[in-house]
Amino acid sequence: MALPRWWSCGCRGGKGYFLLQRPTALQVSSGHGEPWALDLDAVAQKISQGEFTAWDIDRLPCRDAEVEPGPGTWFIESPFFPTVDSTGGKVVLPRITWGTHRLFSTAGPSWTLEIGERESVLMPGVPP
């Protein structure tokens, strides 16, 4: 929506064009559009310093994580993250960011999931 408005003002190319295009290119090249996987703290810092450009938008550290929550279809708290079916009770969560997440089953149970650089810890979720 911003690009057509920007274009209608007579702007062509230049730095502004790339400011609008880089976030789109980042999402497309990353394989899935997970906006919560962006380093928003770094973006906020650059904005507060008045030095923000689209080149400051980076992904948070992430990795594929394999956990064993049991049978079923699972998803994390992000509405942008795909659901994952378990195989033998195990699920592989693709490109999940480091940190704490909630892992939910379509059947009801949930887990707290801690993703680190090299390991994943699955803890029982707090009952609703």
Topology:
Elements (H helix, E strand, L loop, with lengths): L1 H7 L5 H17 L9 H9 L13 E6 L5 E4 L7 E2 L5 E7 L1 E7 L4 E6 L4 E5 L4
Antiparallel strand pairs: 1-4, 2-3, 2-5, 5-6, 6-7
Describe what this molecule looks like in 3D.
This protein has 128 residues and is of the alpha+beta class. It folds into two domains: 2-56, no CATH class; 62-124, no CATH class. 26% of the residues lie in helices and 29% in strands. It has helices spanning 2-8, 14-30, 40-48; strands spanning 62-67, 73-76, 84-85, 91-97, 99-105, 110-115, 120-124. The chain has a five-stranded antiparallel sheet with strand order 3-2-5-6-7, with no helix packed on it. Strand 6 and strand 7 (120-124) form a beta hairpin. It is elongated. The N and C termini lie far apart (40 Å). The model is unreliable at 1-21 (pLDDT under 50).
How would you sum up this structure in a few lines?
By secondary structure, this protein is an alpha+beta fold. The protein is built from three helices and seven strands; from the N terminus they run αααβββββββ.
Tags for this entry?
3 helices; alpha+beta; elongated; 26% helix; 29% strand; two-stranded antiparallel sheet
The general outline is elongated
The beta-strand count equals 7
Strand order of the largest sheet: 3-2-5-6-7
The low-confidence runs, each spanning 5 or more residues with pLDDT under 50, are 1-21
Helix content: 25-40%
Q: Helix and strand string, N-terminal first? A: HHHEEEEEEE
What is the residue-mean pLDDT, rounded to a whole number?
77
Strand portion, in percent?
Answer: 25-35%
Q: Which structural class is indicated by helix and strand composition?
A: alpha+beta
Distance between the termini: 40 Å
Compute the CA-based radius of gyration: 19 Å
Q: In this structure, how is the largest beta sheet organized?
A: 5 strands, antiparallel
Oligomer: single chain
